[in-house]
Structure prediction request, 655 residues.
Amino acid sequence: MKEMIKETSQKGRIGFFLLILLIMACLGDVVNPIAQKLLLPVPVTIQRTDQTAGRNVTILYEEYEHNPDELFLELKEENDAESHAWKYTKGDLGKSWTMLSDTPGSTALTITTKRSPRKYLTLLCNRGGGIVQIQAGEKVITVDCYKDQEKSEICRVYLFEHDRRLILVKIAIYSVVFLLVFVGALILADLFLNKTSMSDFFLAPPKKADIAGCFAILFGIAVYQYKVEGIPNYLKVGDEAGYWKTTLFQNGKLDLDFLAAQFSPRGYWCYVPQTIAKEIGERIGIDPSILWMLMVTFSWSILIMAFFPKLYQRMTQKQARRLQVIPFVIILLTTWRQLLTCVLMDAYGMMAFWFFLYGLFQFLEDKKAVTAVWTGISASVACSFRSAYFVGIIGFVVYALILLWKEKKETHKKAVIGMLAGAAAFVIICLPQLAINLHRDHAGLLAHDNPHAYYDRYVTLWSSDWALANGNIAYPLLATDDQMRTMKNKSYNNETPLSLEQLLDIYMESPVETLMLIAKKLVIGFDQKTNIAHPGDGAVPWRETVGMIFSLWNYFVLFSGMYAFCKNKEIVAKEKWMAGLVFVLTVLPQTFMKIEWRYVMIGYFLIYYFFAFYFVGPLLQERKKRRTLLMQTDYLMKLSIFMFVCLTLSFLFLA
Prediction:
């Protein structure tokens, strides 16, 4: 270990120190309870000292969701247990106070509590107030609650505002935690850098059996979530509830009028998976939710264990290894665990788009009509699940045409035949959508936006307008700041529905603010805070230890993927073009509307592609590369700075 430390560059040491310091600083929810337990309790006595008739002492309860009035609750518990005859009155939140008041027969309240600078009593001061004496340990506080005025006042009395014991205990605990984490990290680093080697199993390419193994793991975890853990608000709220209720069949028949009355930007494929799950489930007596999970986890297994490795091989002519696809499984189970169960179509749409990309790059090589056919099918399905992919598909088709045009003319005929076959497949898959659209008096092959799609407006216009008027959203959290909220308000009334031209007018009024808006939305869009689809308002612990560790993990994966993209020279030109086009054509347009993490899911998994194949893979395969990265480069320093900046921006937008 000493040799490892000596061989590490100064940047590597500083980066390692900063990373440990950042992780340690996020452990407040671990340190604070320990510090409280280590403190010795101190007696606190409260009593009224004057006996003036008509006077009393009233202690109020201040209700805060994340910081309960502990002292009041302790006093109430003591009063209930020992019958000190203080009168308890339950208030109505927002209308009247919850309080404890002394009565003519009441006695002094004495409790033992832990010292904390934040502990206080809230006293009611008015014409009926008496004199109260509070003894906290060796400290005695006397407060006259009498105020000769009609309007009552409240007085907060902090019992330990100058007490340093808790602060010193926390400093000591943080110091110990830092040393433990630091030493533990050094031991792990030594093992990883000098003693870790991959077995032949992990170095082998993924096989068909791995698809089954991955499926068994994902499906088992999904069922465990559903049956044992429980999933908050499952199938009850939001888009998920709407999707689950809507199937292709009504009363056993295909009803085009019913489908035409649904949300027009959703294609008919949005109703296929749940239709299959419900129809089969009802016929064989199995919970349709279980069948849904079976289908979606099997789809994930195919994508992770088959298509991503094949895409990598198609791009680089290199064979993927198991250790390069395992990170996808880990990320799915940590950051995106909700995708194993939730009934949302974003995952299916993204999968279809990845299948399209693989097919497109394969067609560029083999020019086979059969390849073009399933590529066209994938493109059509992707557009049906999520119409936002249409722009990306058009862009990649243009990119493919340019590459084909540059090839020898002898291949053009075969390519043209293939493209015609692919286009025909695309149209055929769209025909059911055309039938639905004709019932809407719209002769189009794809799901479409319309002037009455959402709140009697185009959904894209409504979404863009809403984001400018209210700030940005990343469900279930509202993430915004004053600059985002006031862009519209500078020129228009916030309540006024705007046209496309008026929205463009806002963007062009101050191009630099528009660039700021785009940058902020990208930060928010890639700052995922929970792996639960519908946790409910206020249920995301983003500022607690568990939430911050979740964020640090997300930042680590994203930064490492982007770092590999920028630094790894083995990335081929086709992969760079793929990344650029995916970002510009499918991610960037989302920044002009209200954004949710799932809307830019394709961007996440694009970064995961580079993280898995060009960061984790090389590091685990070659000891020299991981020693160079962690010991000789500024990777750890940049990672620590990136994490801290992201946390800072995150709290800026969410707080």
Q: What stands out?
A: The radius of gyration is 31 Å. The chain has five domains: 2-31+169-201, 41-163, 202-344, 345-448, 454-621. Residues 38 and 369 are 73 Å apart (CA to CA).
